[in-house]
């Protein structure tokens, strides 16, 4: 459902823009909120040496940290007050949405309307605070140990006081961003959280373009290659927008009925979004692909072929590509999904060794028999739960119009459209 500002903007022409005072106020409010977001990204945490932190962060270029730094608009690189961004809020929202599908109490709460939605939002805020506190504490520990023995730590005075200050500051920064996003949604234009994420990504675009054109001017990049890069970027954005708006229209055929024009069969379509999983799978896939490079960078070794870490990374990437090819061959020429079968085979292959070690520990007395029973029960329960969630379906009711039957009664036919709960 479109917001009031979006409905106003769709019915507005350029000639009447000067008269739309409410829309102009919303636009100015949104712009001011995004400016505040960008200013906060340059305020570092208390007790941080920015120069030492910049030197340490340069050693992890191209890894997972650089990937998440893009979403925060450079806040993670500068370790600012909003270094965590709105990612804890998004994670808590996903957890609450999944919990509503599994918990009958939360599902009933979701059906209560506005009051239930407010309670679920409150639970999401509590989950955000909890996640921020955990992430903030481990960030403080990582900053204290990062760089010791090499170029020096980025923390001026490590200790418990620094950890507490870091946790409180990061929690406050994320909660302020969450509040700012809600204010943009209610008093500005568009979805506030989405605009904050977009502003963080777009913030690095001017620097990238300047570096790209400077490389073209100095001759380090061929002009034809520069044009191809820009064309590929524009084409990729258009393709993403097309796939995001794409729909799969399922035909609904109604039974024939007598009308003034004769016997007619009505038809309609049920629009289903083609990309139901959103951007979560690409984000996780990119993080997993960058994980080996990040491990080598933190280990302090190069990824070239002369280091054993480099050999490990190269072998890992080559083995992954081979397994992907094997999985595709199983899918096309074998039975079932190839990637899923390879993952299942890798897990099941470790099962006999794990069971043998567990029962050997029970036989020698190093493991309590009660602990073994609990572990086995939890494993079986987890497998049953995964199978249940994989087979779970959400049945969408389709109501057909009433029609005349042989008994002379008007009956309304019903059917259900099964939709898989775990679409991702």
Compact summary:
By secondary structure, the protein is mainly alpha-helical.
Structure description:
The chain is mostly helical. Helix content is 64%, strand content 10%. It has 17 helices and 6 strands. The strands form 3 sheets. The chain has a two-stranded antiparallel sheet. It has a two-stranded antiparallel ribbon with strand order 2-3. Strands 5-6 form a two-stranded antiparallel sheet. The radius of gyration is 28 Å and the shape is globular. The two termini are 24 Å apart. The relative contact order is 0.07.
Summarize the helices and strands and which ones pair or pack.
Blueprint: H1 4-10, H2 21-40, H3 50-57, H4 64-71, H5 75-78, H6 87-102, H7 104-110, H8 114-145, H9 160-187, H10 192-202, H11 205-218, H12 223-245, E1 247-253, E2 257-259, E3 262-264, E4 267-273, H13 280-299, H14 308-333, H15 338-349, H16 351-364, H17 369-391, E5 393-404, E6 410-420
Antiparallel strand pairs: 1-4, 2-3, 5-6
């Amino acid at each position: 459902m479109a917001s009031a500002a979006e409905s106003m903007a769709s019915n507005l022409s350029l000639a009447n823009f000067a008269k739309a005072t409410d829309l102009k106020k919303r636009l100015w409010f949104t712009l001011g909120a995004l400016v505040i977001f960008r200013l906060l990204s340059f305020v570092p945490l208390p007790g941080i040496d920015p120069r030492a932190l910049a030197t340490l962060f340069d050693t992890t270029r191209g890894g997972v940290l650089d990937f998440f730094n893009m979403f925060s608009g450079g806040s993670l690189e500068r370790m600012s007050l909003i270094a965590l961004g709105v990612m804890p809020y998004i994670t808590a929202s996903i957890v609450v949405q999944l919990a509503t599908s599994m918990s009958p109490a939360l599902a009933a709460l979701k059906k209560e309307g506005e009051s239930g939605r407010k309670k679920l939002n409150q639970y999401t805020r509590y989950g955000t605070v909890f996640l921020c506190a955990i992430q903030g504490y481990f960030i403080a520990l990582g900053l204290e140990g990062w760089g010791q023995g090499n170029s020096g730590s980025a923390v001026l005075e490590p200790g418990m006081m620094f950890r507490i200050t870091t946790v409180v500051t990061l929690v406050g920064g994320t909660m302020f961003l969450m509040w700012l996003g809600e204010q943009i949604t209610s008093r500005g234009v568009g979805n506030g959280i989405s605009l904050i994420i977009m502003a963080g990504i777009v913030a690095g675009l001017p620097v990238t373009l300047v570096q790209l054109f400077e490389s073209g001017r100095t001759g380090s990049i061929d002009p034809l290659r520069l044009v191809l890069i820009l064309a590929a970027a524009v084409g990729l954005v258009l393709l993403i927008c097309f796939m995001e708006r794409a729909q799969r229209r399922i035909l609904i055929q109604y039974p024939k009925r007598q009308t003034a024009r004769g016997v007619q069969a009505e038809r309609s379509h049920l629009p289903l979004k083609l990309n139901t999983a959103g951007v979560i799978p690409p984000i996780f896939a990119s993080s997993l692909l960058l994980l080996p490079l990040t491990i080598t960078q933190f280990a302090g070794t190069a990824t070239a072929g002369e280091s054993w870490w480099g050999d490990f990374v190269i072998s890992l990437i080559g083995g992954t590509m081979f397994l992907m090819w094997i999985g595709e061959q199983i899918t096309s020429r074998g039975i079932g999904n190839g990637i899923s079968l390879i993952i299942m085979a890798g897990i099941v292959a470790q099962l006999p060794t794990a069971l043998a070690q567990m029962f050997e520990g029970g036989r020698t007395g190093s493991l309590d028999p009660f602990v073994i029973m609990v572990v086995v029960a939890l494993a079986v329960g987890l497998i049953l739960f995964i199978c249940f969630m994989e087979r779970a379906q959400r049945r969408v009711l389709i109501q057909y119009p009433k029609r005349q039957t042989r008994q002379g009664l008007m009956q309304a036919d019903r059917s259900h459209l099964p939709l898989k709960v775990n679409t991702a």
